[in-house]
Structures are given as structure tokens and as C-alpha cells.
Design goal:
The protein is α+β, with helices and mostly antiparallel strands and about 100 residues long. The protein has one domain: Gyrase A, domain 2, CATH 3.30.1360.20. The protein contains 3 helices and 4 strands, in the order H-E-E-H-E-E-H. The longest helix is centred in the middle third of the chain and has 18 residues. It is globular. The mean pLDDT is about 95. It binds the ligand C[C@H](O)[C@H](O)[C@H]1CNC2=NC(N)=NC(=O)C2=N1. One of its GO terms (molecular function) is 4-alpha-hydroxytetrahydrobiopterin dehydratase activity. It is an enzyme of class 4 (lyase).
Length: about 100
């Protein structure tokens, strides 16, 4: 079993992505874009993700372009993808699903 901050193997990454349909892998990063229903709705979403990131002590890079939010996950201390990234991606999906409608 992979410790939380050990680098994932290729098969662990593809297995993890199989249950993260909104995410793509770009090198050492997992990325998901979300279109919020409004700019402030997107900011609310960013705040909810920020609280989860603080709680997990694992922080996504977040890009905000009006209503388009992009979350990017990688484990900087490990120099690549770890179980922490998969776990945070799943938490972000749950926050998005629970929150406002997004396109
Ligand atoms: C000191 C603190 O625990 C570390 O810097 C945490 C904070 N959040 C983090 N977030 C991410 N994405 N990668 C890290 O390696 C990381 N390390």
C-alpha cells in the first residue's frame, strides 16, 4: 500500500483517474476545470475547496478566470503525484457536486 506521500506508480495513477472522471493528467499534475454559474458562485466554490485544502494540509493550485475555475494538484514535497492528490481531487469533486450547478 502506498504511503500518502510516496509517488504513485503509473498503474496507481490510471486506476485513480478511473474514479475521477472530470480530471485529466498532465505530467505530474491532475487538473480539473469547472464552470461556475456566476463569478461569486465560483468564489464560494474556491472558498470551500480552500477550507478542505487547509483541513487536509494539501493545497491545489487554483486559477480563476471569471466563472472558469481550474484546480491543479501535485505533491510538491514529493515532486509528483501521490495518494494525497487523488484524495484531494475526490474531495473537490464532492464539493463541486454538493455546491452550485456548474456547466
Ligand atoms: C509545511 C506544509 O505541511 C507543506 O508545505 C504542505 C502544504 N501543502 C501542500 N500542498 C501540496 N499540493 N503539496 C505539498 O507538498 C504541500 N505541502
Amino acid at each position: 500500500m502506498t504511503a500518502a506521500d510516496d509517488l504513485l506508480s503509473e498503474s496507481e495513477i490510471s486506476d485513480g483517474l478511473a474514479s475521477l472522471p472530470g480530471w485529466i493528467r498532465e505530467g505530474d499534475t491532475l487538473m480539473r476545470s469547472v464552470r461556475a454559474s456566476s463569478f461569486l458562485g465560483g468564489i464560494d466554490l474556491v472558498n470551500a475547496v480552500a477550507r478542505a485544502a487547509e483541513d487536509a494540509n494539501h493545497h491545489p493550485d487554483i486559477t480563476i478566470r471569471w466563472r472558469e475555475l481550474t484546480f491543479a494538484l501535485s505533491t510538491h514535497s514529493a515532486g509528483g503525484l501521490t495518494a494525497k492528490d487523488l484524495a484531494m481531487a475526490s474531495r473537490i469533486d464532492r464539493i463541486v457536486e454538493a455546491g452550485e450547478s456548474t456547466d
